[in-house]
Amino acid sequence: MKRQLFTIKQSAKLFGIVVLSAAIVAGCSASPAASPAATTAAAEQGVKVVKTAKIAKQKIGEPIEQVGDVLSSVQLDIVPKSGGEVIEIVKKRGDKVEKGEVIFRLDPTDALIQKELNDVSIKGAQAGLSEGKQKTSNGIADAKDGVSKLETAVNDLEKAYNKAHNDYDLGTATKTQLEQAETALTNMKKDLESARRSLKTLQQTNSLAQAEQSLEAAQVSARSIERSLNNLEVKAPASGILTDLNITVGQTLTPGGRVGEVQQTNPIKIKSQLTEVSANLVRGKGELIFYIPDVTAKASAKVIYLSDIINGQTKSYDLELEVPNPDGKLKPGSKAQIELTKDDEQVVPVVPSLSIVREGGDNFVYILNGETVQKRKVELGRLNETNQEIISGVKEGEVLVTSGQHQLKDQDKVKVSN
Q1: How confident is the model at residue 37 (pLDDT cuts 50, 70, 90)?
Q2: Is the pLDDT of residue 32 over 80?
Q3: 116 and 57: one domain?
Q4: 38: pLDDT confidence band, cut at 50, 70 and 90?
Q5: Is 0.70 surpassed by the pTM of this model?
Q6: For 230, how many CA atoms within 13 A lie in the half-sphere containing its CB?
Q7: Rounded Cα–Cα distance for residues 84 and 104 (Å)
Q8: Which among 345, 370, 388 is the end of a domain?
Q9: From CA 86, how far away is CA 408, in angstroms rounded?
Q10: Domain that holds residue 164
Q11: What are phi and psi of 262, to 5 degrees?
């Protein structure tokens, strides 16, 4: 029994020697760190003892997600431009429509009556204009003939005057005869000038203006009536899904009143409101990943808008994505999950949360630089259990003080004891 006890004691003693030897070997092979004796000596000299670790990157979590609203890319109201009674409904609420397709028709009776009356007005104006043109043409022709006749008469009287003047010089005609010839010539010349002025007035004056205006007015009315007739067929303003159509046959509609809406769903939009931090994660990106739980797999969406300034009403930044939707699988009104970051963006520099020194509203860490420490202000990100994301202030590979930091000041000399 004593021999057994002695053997056990020997074994325990041998085991202790082995463990102690291993510890000594491990201490000799570790990175330069203060031995217990050195630590004591350092403390006696006023040098602060700390523990350190290299800053490394780790996955801080899953991609950051944001909820977004799925909306149609275009919403256009259906507004009849003409009034009247509904006589036929071609499309119903929920139908898919193409731009220009007839949705419903209004009674054209009144517009057709107006068209017939206006057609009569056009014919009358055309007839009046034609008659006026004929009269004007005849008047000008008559005036030209009158001028021509007077020109001939003036020419004859000039010859008669010249003969009377010669006869007077020869003494075969009296002065009275010469004066009579001169008066006749002068009066005829005045009649010729008057006729020429009348002809010029006829040629330069548009006596058909009133008739032409009447015809133009009737033609404008015809175009207006034709437009009204076309507007009695109310058509889809865009391609998409017909919503909010609440009309019945026999109902009288007034022009300008909203009766429905067409929502364009290809492409479709996803809109969301972001905080400033979330907006900064998205800024500069052309695409984001989205999905609708239990409906669609993850897919890319084009970023078409991210506001530069905060929305004064929502106190957030507006984000807008655009997604092709040819099969109509994405429905307006549903909720989508938008991934603001990618998987590789989750691997970030982290430090133990206990290594952070908080002073007021600021956060600091201590970085080992040779035998001294440097106090660094840092910007914190996400927290994952004991790890804290560092957005700025330090970088991967730098040596961080993980213990003893609360006793330090900037540029303190330290001894590492890991």
Answers
A1: low
A2: no
A3: no
A4: low
A5: no
A6: 8
A7: 12
A8: 345
A9: 85
A10: 111-226
A11: -115, 125
